[in-house]
Amino acid sequence: MLDINDECIELKTPTAMPNAAAFLWNKKMVMQVNCRGFVVAQHMQPDASKYSHSPNIEAKTFIQPEQPFYAHHPGRFVYIKDEQSGELFSVPYEPVRKTGDTFVFSAAQDEIQWRIEFQGIEVQLTLSIPRDDVVELWRLQVRNKSGRPRKLSIYPSFTIGYMSWMNQSACYRQDLGGIVASSVSPYQKLEDYPRIKTLKDKTFFLHNIKPTAWETNREAFEGEGGLHQPSAVDQEQLEDGEAFYQTPVGVFQFRHSFDVDHSQEYRFLFGPAKDDSEIAQLREKYFAPGAFEASLQDYRAYIKEGEGCLTINTPDAGFDNFVNHWLGRQIFYHGDVNRLTNDPQTRNYLQDNMGMCYIKPQVSRHAFLHALSQQEQSGAMPDGILLHEEAQLQYINQIPHTDHCVWLPICLQAYFDETGDYGLLDEQVSGLSDGKTLTVFERVTNAMHWLLESRDARNLSYIAQGDWCDPMNMVGPKGRGVSGWLSVATVYALKLWADICQQFRQQGQAEKLLASAGQMSEAINEHLWDGDWLARGITDDNVVFGISDDPEGRIFLNPQSWSMLADCVNAEQQQKMIAAIEQQLETPYGVMMLAPAYTSMREDVGRVTQKYPGVAENGSVYNHAAIFYIYALYTIGESERAFKLLRQMIPGSDAQDYLQRGQLPAYIPNYYRGAYYQIPKTAGKSSQLFNTGTVSWVYRSLIDGLFGLRGCREGLCIQPQLPAHWQHASVSRVFRGATFDVSYERKASLHKMSIRINDKVLDEAIVRDIKVGERYSIKIQLPAA
Ligand code: CEZ
User: Fold this and answer.
1) Is the beta carbon of 26 within 6 A of some atom in ligand 1?
2) Is-contact 753 765, C-beta < 8 A?
3) Smallest CA separation from ligand 1 atom 1, residue
4) Hey, is 494 helix, strand or coil?
5) What is the reported pLDDT for 785?
6) How many whole angstroms from 2 Cα to the centroid of ligand 1?
7) Which atom of ligand 1 is nearest to the CA of 611?
């Protein structure tokens, strides 16, 4: 069903995992491409926009988890009709849904391809996108392998869809060599006109070979036969129709004879444009000889920039494949294009850039400075970071969340570990809203004080309308409710920052922060400890929730994980939490973020309880929360459990697991369905959404935890936590300009770890005086576990 090799992942059926998808992106666009041919594509102008729409009025929305596909969902399809027999099939699979002799959906890092054979006709359909422009580059190769001459009509059919209720049309343009659909983005406010008139309201579909005929009117194309057997395809030739305010479509017909073994290649460009001259320019650029190939090279080089600082070779091939080929790519997507938003949530922006520390630390450095330049007068961080001048805080960023400051020391810590660039602390940052010029050190210290001021009389952190959990919006809207998670997270942040203060001879400051962390730890134990785990919070009306008395939402993962990081509970408490989590939250697909999932609205907790049980924050295996727990487990040395849960984040490796999750191991999704004990049937099903803060923490867990190659002030600290069943492993780790070839081996005779560097014994587990450009060989021997 699935082949995984270094270059790509290949799915051999369009029906077993019908929602399986891959994604491509550049700085201006992103495409989620489903194995059956459905596509969700978005481009930035600078707001997220579409050029291939559904057939009815669409809500403006981002790419959603578990995005449902339906027959008329936008996609890129090719109908192929045998002129002699009249038999019709379509590539990749939709809309005709006939199974051919072979089907391969191949997701590579830089290209997506289908290879299909249907009754002797071999079809290869390949998609790539350029590094900078917003245009889809399609290559269609058709070969007659049937051993007899064939007459075929080939109809690439690309969805344009319902563009606008104000104005939409489409026609064939001889001068531009293709179909152009035009529209006016709907608006009502006069003040919107100057923006509207700059938008790319045209969708073009261009060919490199002149078609026999075309259709641009969806209804005319489908006729009475519908999508599965369009009436227009039953005719000998398409009618060259126009769409006059009818829903547009882009269909060409190529009537070609194929001798035995004859093959023919067609190329297409599909995308949005402002006007004819832009379309003409794109045509000239991408239909020039060798342009597709050059663009692919260029894009390949771009994706390569996303290679991380770790290459691994372990006894687990599926794990290696994901880490070596896909993990860095997914982090790079987040770090380089910020999920294609103009106002990333502050916590997302900081954590995505935490991941970027392992790929392009200069980008992270810039991002941290940029975020701090938007700090408020009070020391608070805003809900979102504006990435350019016209950007505004939208959607969730208009809701007050109280956690943004905690991410500063946490993400900076990873940056310092990786780069040793403590000089960042002295960098001056001019504030856009506070009008002050302060150093990074001062700004983060102010953020810590803001957190301290945002506590109640018990020393617990206010939650307002949410914390890390966006939809937990009704715990504290009256200004009294507190977050258990944020309280422990604040202790963690304060301790990390106190450590930095100490290193920089700010002893007084360090003591202040530590004293507050101590008070908060006491308060956490006094007010939130429920006997076996910590509560999630206390509502405006002073109701403690996330406790054993609650029939739903009894136990939440985040307070437990973060209390381990913050070291604010003792070892006995930790063991109790771990046992409770194992019993109530662990599943074969990872660890759930709360259980039991809420089945009805709890008005003192909020919108999270209205999400469907087991979906997203309401008790799914929300991978971002799961990875916090895994990172915490590594921090306290619970290596076995940490690896088990980490491995569960990646689909595979047995067929049953792939089928249940329905996802390719090409990315980690934001969640797998949870509510494992309530709705076992759907548990494990992937959201298919590749936007998630998880991946940065996965990388950090590999570096700091599993392979134990974390940077520190002095150099590289060696503290591996390999799972017991691994007898050996090796990694290549790029670190501060040097390369470390590290091998791990278990030796039954050993009692403690021994390390050799360039064949000399290393007495302490730290490599000091690392030289840029140097290659070090490190041999680690570990006792049998
Ligand atoms: O968004 C994510 C946020 O981007 O949810 C996380 C949060 O920490 C991230 O910053 C947990 O709440 O209902 C909602 O508003 C949802 O919370 C979504 O916006 C959610 C999506 O699942 C996207 O990943």
Assistant:
1) no
2) yes
3) 470
4) helix
5) 82
6) 31
7) 13
Binning pLDDT at 50, 70 and 90, where does residue 208 land?
Answer: very high
348 Cβ below 6 A of ligand 1: yes
Any atom of ligand 1 within 6 Å of the Cβ of 295:
no
Percent of the chain with pLDDT over 90: 98
Closest ligand 1 atom, CA of 62?
Answer: 23
609 to each of 4, 464, 616, 654, how far by Cα in Å? Answer: 38, 17, 10, 33
Residue among 63, 383, 470 whose CB has most ligand 1 atoms within 8 A, to mutate: 470
If one residue of 381, 396, 687 were mutated to test the ligand 1 pocket, choosing by the most ligand atoms within 8 A of its CB, it would be 396
Beta strand extents in 504-605 (DSSP E only): 537-538, 544-545, 555-556, 586-587, 590-591, 594-595
**Whose Cα sits closest to atom 13 in ligand 1?**
471
Of the candidates 209, 218, 338, 206, which has an alpha carbon nearest to the alpha carbon of residue 273?
206
**What pLDDT shows up at residue 707?**
99
Residue 581: pLDDT band with limits 50, 70, 90: very high
Query: Residue 763 gets which letter from DSSP?
Result: S
CA distance 592 to 259: 58
Q: What is the per-residue pLDDT for 58?
A: 85
Q: What is the mean pLDDT of the chain?
A: 97
Which one-letter DSSP state was computed for residue 758? T
**Cα(469) to centroid(ligand 1), Å:** 7
- Please work out, in degrees rounded to the nearest 5, the angle formed at the alpha carbon of residue 91 by the alpha carbons of 87 and 94: 90
Nearest atom (ligand 1) to Cα of 396: 15
Q: Encode pLDDT of 9-58 as tens digits.
A: 999 999 999 999 999 999 999 999 999 999 999 999 999 999 999 999 98
Percent of the chain having pLDDT more than 70? 100
- Name which of 60-69, 235-244, 290-299, 520-529 the model is least confident about: 60-69
Distance between the two ends of the chain, CA-based, in angstroms?
Answer: 36
pLDDT at 45: 95
Longest Cα–Cα distance in the chain: 88
92 lines ligand 1 (CB under 6 A): no
Our answer on whether the CB atom of 465 is closer than 6 Å to any ligand 1 atom is no
Tell whether ligand 1 has an atom less than 6 A from the beta carbon of residue 396: yes
CA 458 to CA 483: how far, in whole Å? Answer: 12
The residues, any chain, with a CB within 8 Å of residue 583's CB and separated by 6 or more, are none
Catalytic residues: 470
Segment 633-653, tens digit of pLDDT = 999 999 999 999 999 999 998
* Least confident residue range of 118-122, 148-152, 500-504, 616-620: 500-504
CA nearest to 118, candidates 94, 141, 92, 89: 89
Taking the CA atoms of 444, 449, 450 and 451 in sequence, report the sign of the dihedral they define.
Answer: positive
User: Quick check: helix, strand or coil at residue 205?
Assistant: strand
| Ligand 1 neighbour 615 (Cβ under 6 A) | no
Radius of gyration of the chain (CA): 28
Find all residues with CB under 8 Å of 361, minimum gap 6, and list them: 415, 418, 419, 421
Please, what sign has the CA dihedral across residues 226, 227, 229, 230?
positive
Give distance in angstroms: CA of 184 to centre of ligand 1.
32
Position 7 pLDDT exceeds 90: no
d(CA 7, CA 17) in angstroms, rounded, equals 21
* Pocket of ligand 1 contains residue 105 by CB under 6 Å: no
Indicate the angle between helix axes 440-453 and 484-503, nearest 10 degrees: 150
Does pLDDT of 657 surpass 90? yes
Helix 557-566 to helix 623-635 angle (10° resolution) is 30
The conformational region for residue 590 under phi > 0 = left, psi -120 to 50 = alpha, else beta, is left
Beta-carbon count within 10 A of 411 CB:
26
Q: Does residue 663's CB lie within 6 angstroms of at least one atom of ligand 1?
A: no
The minimum-distance atom of ligand 1 relative to the CA of 466 is 12
| 322-358 tens-digit pLDDT | 999 999 999 999 999 999 999 999 999 999 999 999 9
Question: Cα of 468 to ligand 1 centre, how many Å?
Answer: 8
